[in-house]
Structures are given as C-alpha cells and as structure tokens.
Design a protein that fits this description.
Belongs to the precorrin methyltransferase family. This is Uroporphyrin-III C-methyltransferase/precorrin-2 dehydrogenase/sirohydrochlorin ferrochelatase. It comes from Sulfitobacter noctilucicola. GO terms for molecular function: NAD binding; precorrin-2 dehydrogenase activity; sirohydrochlorin ferrochelatase activity; uroporphyrin-III C-methyltransferase activity. The protein is α/β, with parallel strands linked by helices and 464 residues long. The protein folds into 4 domains: 100 residues, Rossmann fold, CATH 3.40.50; 60 residues; 113 residues, Tetrapyrrole methylase, N-terminal domain (Cobalt-precorrin-4 Transmethylase, domain 1, 3-Layer(aba) Sandwich), CATH 3.40.1010; 122 residues, Methyltransferase, Cobalt-precorrin-4 Transmethylase, Domain 2, CATH 3.30.950. It contains 18 helices and 19 strands. A 5-stranded parallel beta sheet has the order 3-2-1-4-5, with helices on both faces. A 5-stranded parallel beta sheet has the order 10-9-11-8-12, sandwiched between helices. Helix 7 runs antiparallel to helix 8 and helix 11 packs across helix 12. Bound molecules: S-adenosyl-L-homocysteine. S-adenosyl-L-homocysteine binds next to helix 13 and strand 19.
Length: 464
C-alpha cells in the first residue's frame, strides 16, 4: 500500500486550487462537498467557477498563483493543464508546506483523490494507487447502486442518538442494538418517513434495555476450499457477527479478512502428523469463550462435517449446555471435481462415491479395499499425499486395474491450484515428483474431462 487512506478534517482549513479549466472544475465539484475554505487562483476562470464564487462556495482570485498563496493551506491542487505551470506552482506550494496533488500526474503528487461514494456522514473512498481508474469508477457505480440513499440519514440520526445508547452496557449489548437499528428497524422506519426514525430508535432502546444478555453460542462454519467467493452467505454473516473466530490452518487469509474487525482471532492450526493445538485445548477454548457470552465462529476448512473432528467439539460444549449450530460449506472434493469438469457420480459408471481419509489418528487408514478395487469405483481421498503408496499398494493387492485414472488436485479453488493427472500404477511416484506443498485431494477413478485437459495446464492468470 503506497498510499495510506485517511479522512482529513477540513472544517475551517484552506484548500488551494491553481487553474480554472476542466481539470479544476472536476476537482472543485468534489472538494466543495467538504467543509474546507477553498481558494481558486485563475486568470481566466470557467463560468461555473465565477458562479460558485458569487454564491460564496469558494473564493476566486483572478490571477495566476504565486508565492505566498498557499500559506496555511492544507492541500494544493495543480490543475493548470500545463506541465510547466503545474511544476512551477507545485514547487511553491510544497515549499509553503501544503500537500501537493498535480492533476493526472501521479509521480509528482504527494496524495491522490479517491473516487468517493457520498452518503454523508458515511463516506466510502476507493483508490487503486492510480493503477486502474476505470476499475475505481466501476466499483463506485456498483456501490452507488447498492447503498440506499437513506443510509446517510440513518447514520446522522444514529449519531445524535449515541449518548442515549450509553444506557446499554458497553460491548455486545450496544453492538446488537446498533445492528438492529441499521439493518432492521431503521430502514423499516425510514420507509414510513424520516420522522418515524427517531421514535423507532427510542422504542428499540427500551426493548434492548429489557433484554437479558445473550448466551454464548458456537457456529461451526464450513469455510470452503479457500476461494472466499465459495463461502456461503450464512458463513459471511456469521463471520461478520463473530466476537471470537477460532480457525484452522487451511483457512485462507482472504477469508479471515472478512471477520468482524473487533473479533478475537485464534489460530489453532493443525498439520497432519505435525505440531498442532491439541483437541482438548480447542475444546477448552470453545467452552471458555462461550461461557463469557461470546458468539463464536469455529471456522473449519471445506465442510465442517467432513474429516473435521466436529463431533468431539460438539460433545465438549454440549456438556456445558452451550448452544451451537452448523453452517455447511463446500468440501474439498466438490471444489476438486469441479476444477476438472467431472461429476462425483455418473449414471452407469458409479452410483456411489466414497470420501476416504488417507490417514487417521492411528496412522494410515484402513478401508474396504476389495470393494474400491472394482471397476468404475470413485473415491475422494482426503489427506492422501503421505499415504499414496499405502493406498496404491492396498488397491493393487485387491486386484484394481493399474490403468485406473487418478487425479490429484492441489489447492483446489485457490490461485495456486495445480492438477496432476496420473494412474493408479504411477500415482505414488508422480506425487513424490510433483512435490506438492499445499492441501491436495486425490480423486481415485476420475480423469479430467478431455476438453479441460489442456486448459488445466494454462496458468490461472492467463485464463482471466
Ligand atoms: N473439512 C475439510 C477437510 C479437512 S481434512 C473439507 O471438507 O474439505 C484436510 C484435507 O482436505 C487436506 O489434507 C486435503 O486433502 C483436503 N483439502 C482441503 N482443502 C483443500 C483444497 N483447497 N484443495 C485440495 N484439497 C483440500
């Protein structure tokens, strides 16, 4: 982040613009939204500028900008539409201590003006470090559409009510009250008219005052295979409301970013065969936080019900009568099979599919190999990298065809996704050679659909 976003206090401060043409006009339109004292230096100002000066929106000085003109100014805009003049004026402004922006000249500017979505007092600033103004405008248009015009009004009325809300205890109770206001009762009252909002707030506060403190609760949330867009809407909402997030190693940073900013984030990352937070510690953490009344998100990769040791955690909190629910997620097998354009089941090929783990707590896991060795069987093997040779040996021993297709998908749904196409005969060697370091899912009995074979070899960036 080369440019750090901040909101500048402008009340009573000076902002100086040099120039009176189109470049100056476009900056002035947004600057006039602020409470700054704006001064424009222009020998030949556009008519809009003279009108704004006449109506007291800004001060116009009808001459070119010069020494002393930026004394005590917070910001300076060089909008002369002339490189030499921009350079001359910027040098003066910089020497006089103003922060300088030269229109359309990122390199010589000390700050940039973001694209703005204005629902005053809610202001959203969008910046791309000058890299993609078109993208910034598209995001702005999208937000303009999505955020109701009434948002600003709700925030303004809400602001005036802040002191009244202190009647509720600090922390969760107050947060619940405001959430209810902004996302439920506020918008509802607004549809009847602005004058209904304040009475609605009073009523809401009374109802929240009589509410007993919320009980602690655990949401077991499936975080999906890694791509944040594969989170469910329920998972997003749970993350948004969480007081505490307890997450596993495979949860991607992009997903953790979505958690409520104030949430306590606890990493209990576990690695197969490697160092880990013990299950007992995780259970104890769940109980301890829930007993303080926290809304906990227990975030597990994929679907929490698949090789997630979910039952142990549920049993641990059940003993203490702590409430819980499960939010399903997309399991690695679904993401992996999608990435090779295949189906997990297919009429006439396999009417069932197995989810296997390569190893369990005791080591390599045993299964009904004879059953699996039959023609057409399909299995999704989780945690199957280290056990590849073992699985291969067992299947061959039970008469499986050496040519049975095997596809290993590493980092399914993530930008670093890799697909290894092999056979039962070669799977162990090929896997060892591929040296995969990310999570990998082995699809036994499935090859990438022919048409996709070439596509999977193209790096993802080139597919965008
Ligand atoms: N609950 C998870 C599985 C946890 S076990 C789920 O439903 O997906 C961890 C194993 O899941 C890993 O060893 C790997 O086999 C698989 N896995 C998880 N994320 C993956 C991904 N993005 N790509 C490939 N395999 C993944």
């Amino acid at each position: 982040m080369d440019h750090f976003p901040i909101f500048l206090a402008t009340a009573g401060r000076r902002i100086v613009v040099s120039g009176g043409g189109d470049a100056a006009l476009s900056k002035l339109r947004i600057l006039m939204k602020s409470s700054a004292r704006i001064t424009v230096f222009a020998a030949h100002p556009a008519t809009e500028i003279t009108t704004w000066a006449a109506t007291g929106k800004l001060t116009l000085v009808r001459r070119t900008f010069d020494h002393g003109d930026t004394i005590c100014a917070a910001l300076f805009y060089g909008a002369n539409e002339d490189d030499a003049e921009d350079k001359r004026t910027a040098a003066i402004a910089r020497a006089e201590g103003a922060l300088v922006n030269i229109v359309d000249n990122l390199g010589d500017s000390q700050f940039i003006t973001p694209a703005i979505v204005d629902r005053d007092p809610v202001t959203i600033a969008i910046g791309t470090e000058g890299a993609a103004p078109v993208l910034a405008r598209a995001i702005k248009a999208d937000l303009e559409e999505r955020l109701p015009q009434s948002l600003g009004t709700l925030a303004r009325i809400g602001k005036a009510f802040r002191t009244a809300s202190y009647a509720l205890p600090f922390g969760r109770a107050r947060r619940d009250f405001w959430r209810d206001y902004y996302f439920n009762s506020g918008p509802k009252a607004m549809t009847e008219g602005e004058e209904h909002v304040r009475p609605a707030l009073d009523a809401l506060l009374e109802s929240h005052k009589t509410r007993t403190a919320r009980d602690g609760h655990v949401a077991f949330v499936g975080g999906g295979p890694g791509d944040p867009e594969l989170l469910t809407l329920k998972a997003r909402r749970a993350l948004d409301e969480a007081d505490v997030v307890i997450y596993d190693r495979l949860i991607s940073p992009e997903i953790l970013e979505l958690a409520r900013r104030e949430a306590v984030m606890i990493d209990v990352g576990k690695e197969g065969f490697g160092p880990s937070t013990s299950q007992e510690t995780i259970n104890a953490l769940l109980v301890e936080h829930a007993q303080t009344g926290a809304q906990i998100v227990r975030l597990k990769s994929g679907d929490a019900t698949v090789f997630g040791r979910l039952d142990e955690e549920i049993e641990a909190i059940d003993v203490h009568g702590i409430g819980w629910h499960i939010v399903p997620g997309i399991t690695a097998a679904s993401a992996a099979v999608a990435s090779i354009g295949q189906s997990l089941t297919r009429r006439g090929r396999n009417a069932s599919v197995r989810f296997l783990t390569g190893h369990d707590m005791k080591g390599f896991a045993d299964h009904d190999w004879a059953q699996l060795a039959r023609q057409g069987e399909v299995a999704a093997i989780y945690m199957g990298k280290k056990s590849a040779r073992f699985v291969q040996g067992r299947l061959l021993m039970h008469g499986a065809d050496r040519a049975t297709p095997v596809t290993v998908i590493e980092n399914a749904s993530r930008p670093e996704q890799r697909v290894l196409e092999t056979t039962l005969n070669r799977m162990a060697e090929d896997l060892a050679e591929a040296n995969m370091t990310g999570p990998a899912l082995t699809l036994y009995g499935l090859a990438p659909r022919a048409a996709l074979q070439t596509v999977t070899e193209i790096p993802l960036e080139e597919m965008a």
